[in-house]
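Workshop exercise sheet. Pairs work together: one partner reads the sequence aloud, the other fills in the structure field after running the prediction. Swap roles for the next sheet.
Pair: D.N. / O.F.
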Amino acid sequence: MHSILKQFSLTGGLATVLSFSQFSYAHEMRHVGGANNTGDGANVFMFHVGFLTEPAFATEMNGIDINLSFHPDEAHDKTLTETVDTAKGDTVIITTAEALYFERVDRKIRQMKRRKLAIETDDNGNIKKKYGTENKYPIYFRPTRAGTYGFRLKGSMAHAGVVTDFDETFICENGSQDIDINTGKIKSKFSCVKKAIDFPNAEETSQIAPAQNDHNKHHNHAH
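Structure field:
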């Protein structure tokens, strides 16, 4: 966790988010498992993590959207990608799920809040899959402030006889660890939480109320 925060700087410019045909929203991609648990080589798992609803707005119900897949080949050819599906015998055990909130300090971030999240499970102890999907696993919460959020996910998963333990932290926008080693640019990321626009706000509501009251008085007088 410390190394992640150390690498995360807010001085970087806007990064291009890759678009993938199987996903229609911005999430961070990350490979885990494989050789020395580095995410390299064959038989690795891939996280695709972000908010359930993007863009994410403060005070609106949301959550962590976890998409899991498996790469049996070293080249990680997307045409060979397999879904991690607990309905077909795979296992996805999440022992710890945390929402993290950060503040900006000297163009870096510092963790301010940490909250353990409830994890819905099926009869086998797997995180409960989203209905009608093969590999989407949600964890619900409501972000109450705009700003920089992160997710910590710890547990294990298994597919086709391959078992991998994981303890990964994902941070929005420039906190992404999916970086092109040749260009240094971020390849995939998810958005931070934005402040929603209030409409009508208190001032606008107070301006509307008198006209509405006058209409009601006129209506009552007519009767």
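Discussion prompt: The chain has one domain: 2-197. What would you look at next?
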